[in-house]
Amino acid sequence: MTSEGRVSQSRMEESEHQPVRAATDFLVFGAPLIGPEEKAAVLDCLETGWIGTGPKVHQFESEFGAYLGARHAVAVHSCTAALHLSMLAAGVGPGDEVITTPLTFCATVNAIIHTGATPVLADVDPQTMNIDPGQVRARVNTDTRAIVPVHFAGRCCDMKALNGVVADRDILLIEDCAHAIETTYEGRHTGTFGAMGCYSFYSTKNLTTGEGGMIVTEDEVLAARLRVLALHGLSRDAWKRFSVEGYQHYQAIETGFKYNMMDLQAALGIHQLRRLESNWARRRQVWERYLDAFATAPLELPVPSEANTRHAYHLFTVLIDPAVAGISRDDFLAAITRENIGVGVHYQSVPVHPVYRERYGWHPEDYPHSHRIGEQTVSLPLSAKLTDRDVNDVIHAVRKVLRVI
Fold first, then answer.
1. What's the Rg (C-alpha) of the chain?
2. Which band of pLDDT confidence, cut at 50, 70 and 90, is reported for residue 183?
3. Which residues of 358-379 are buried (b: 16+ CB within 10 A; e: fewer)?
4. Model pLDDT, residue 133
5. pLDDT digits (tens, 9 = 90+) for 29-71
6. CA-CA 20 to 30 A from 124: which of 44, 234, 297, 389?
7. What's the pTM value of the predicted model, to 2 decimals?
8. CA distance 137 to 124
9. How far apart are CA 11 and CA 5, in angstroms?
C-alpha cells in the first residue's frame, strides 16, 4: 500500500466509531465521481451543437479499444443493447439456445429472449458467484449457439475452462462485462476472450456515461455489422451526413435499431476512462478497509481473487445468513437504510421473477447456489466518490445493525 493509502486508511481507522450520518445526509449507493473535465466536455458539446452521435463517440471508441487492447470498439446506448446486437450480429436467433447464469440482472436474459433464442441457465460456483463451467458443459447440446458468462461484481469467470467448453464446437462466447472493465485474466482483459465483449456505462458503473455501453471484437466483419445495426441499419458512417464535409446520402441496408451513443455521453466517457485506474485504486482501498473492518462480523465476505487475475472491485457483496447474523437480509437492508446508507441487491436469482417462471417453468430451487446468494446478498457502497467519512459511516452502520460495536 502506498504512503497515501496508509494515511487515508489511518484516518478512516481513527474516526471509525464516529456517529453515523445526519438525518438529512443520505449516502447514495453507487454515486459516480464526476470531475471538471467531464463537465467542460459536456458543455463543449452543448456549445458546438454536436450533441448526437459524432466525433466524440468515435474518439471514445478508439480510446476504449486501446485501453482493452481490442481491435474494434462500437459504442451503443446500453449494455443491454450491446448484448442484443452482439447476438444478432453473430446470427443467434429462433431455434438456438444460449447458456447464461441465473445470478445476473434481467437484461442478460432479456437480450437473449429478444433475439428469438431460448435462454438456458447454468448455476454458479458458490464461492466466486460466477457461472460454473461444469454446469455449463452439462447443458451444452446441438442447439447451443452461444454462452454468455457474466463477470460478477468485477471477478473474472474461469475463461480457460469456458474456452475448453466451446473448443471445437460451433459455440460463441459473448462476455457480459458490465461489472468488469478493469478485470483481467492472466494479463488479458475480460471481453477479449470471446467473439465479443459487452460493457456497461450506467450511472453506478466504474466508468459512467449516465447510460451507455460498448461492444469490443477482433472481427472486422462483426464490427461493421454492429455499427450498421446500431444506427437503424443505415450504411456505415451515416452519422457524418450532417458534418462539415457536406450532406451525404445514406442507405438502409438492414432493419436495424436506434442503439447509438450520443456525443454528450461520450464526452463523459472520454474523461472517465482517463481516470479509470486512479478510481480503481481508490475502490480497492475501500474494499480492503471493508475486509478488515468486517473480518469478525457475522457476514460472508467476498473470497480472495484468483491467482493471475485482477478484480475490478465493482461490487462489494456480503451475504446475510439469518442463522448466523441474527437478522434477515431484508431486515438488514431496511435497518441500514434507516442509518442513511444506500445499499443494493445484486441479484435475486433470475428464476425468482414471475415472468421467467411462467414462460420457461424455471424453479429457483433448481439453481440452489444462485438462489441462496440471491436471498442473502447485499451490496455495500463502493465508489471512488466515497470519502473516508463515508466509508466509516458504512462500517459504523453495518456494525450497529449487526450489534458488533
1. 22
2. very high
3. eebebebeebebbbbbbbbbbb
4. 98
5. 999 999 999 999 999 999 988 888 889 999 999 999 999 999 9
6. 297
7. 0.93
8. 13
9. 10
Q: Are strands 184-185 and 188-189 parallel, antiparallel or unpaired?
A: antiparallel
Lookup: cell for 229? 445495426
Look up residue 204 and give its three cell numbers. Answer: 453506478
| Residue ranges of the chain assigned to CATH 3.90.1150.10 | 3-33+276-402
Which cell numbers in the block locate residue 207?
Answer: 466508468
- Is 205 among the residues known to form the active site? yes
Give residue 319's identity as a one-letter amino acid code: L
Contact 130, 111 (CB under 8 A): no
Contact yes or no for 102/134 (Cβ under 8 A): no
Residue 294 region by backbone torsions, left for phi larger than 0, else alpha for psi between -120 and 50, else beta: alpha
Q: What is the pLDDT of residue 10?
A: 43
CATH 3.40.640.10 location in the chain: 36-274
Statement: residue 237 has pLDDT above 90: no
pLDDT band, very low/low/confident/very high, at 250 (cuts 50, 70, 90): confident
Residue 11: band (very low, low, confident or very high) from pLDDT cuts 50, 70, 90: very low
Q: Which one-letter DSSP state was computed for residue 398? A: H
- Write the Ramachandran bin of 163: left for phi over 0, alpha for psi from -120 to 50, otherwise beta: alpha
Separation CA 285–CA 189 (nearest Å): 21
Q: Order of strands across the sheet with 213-217?
A: 72-76, 213-217, 196-200, 172-176, 144-148, 97-100, 118-121
pLDDT of the residue at 367: 98
> Is 80 exceeded by the pLDDT of residue 21?
no
Number of Cβ within a 10 Å radius of residue 31? 17
Which of 205, 240, 258, 400 is an active site residue? Answer: 205
State whether residue 324 is helix, strand or coil. helix
Give me the architecture of the 36-274 domain, per CATH: 3-Layer(aba) Sandwich (3.40)
Q: How far apart are CA 197 and CA 386, in angstroms?
A: 29
- For residue 142, what pLDDT band results from cuts at 50, 70 and 90? very high
Specify the CATH architecture of the domain 3-33+276-402.
Answer: Alpha-Beta Complex (3.90)
Cα distances (Å, whole numbers) of residue 374 to 214, 247, 367, 401? 27, 53, 11, 20
What percent of the chain has a predicted confidence (pLDDT) above 70? 91
Whether the Cβ atoms of residue 329 and residue 99 lie closer than 8 Å to each other: no
